[in-house]
Design a protein that fits this description.
mainly beta; two-stranded antiparallel ribbon; 1 helix; 5 strands; 38% strand; globular
Length: 65
Amino acid sequence: YYILDGRGEINIEGETKEVEAGDVIYIPPGKAHTLIHEGDRPIRFITVSVDVSGSFKRARLGYIA
């Protein structure tokens, strides 16, 4: 996640941290997580996902993913 605006808490596998605008949060593959906003402003964020399995690369090369 990249937090664009607002504040909140992120919980990753039972560990909770406060987050705010400008923060970047890395979540390892397969980890349970929740993001909850705090305050009167909504939290706005961007998520970026990476295909760690490599199936996208295989699909682009013409293999069945």
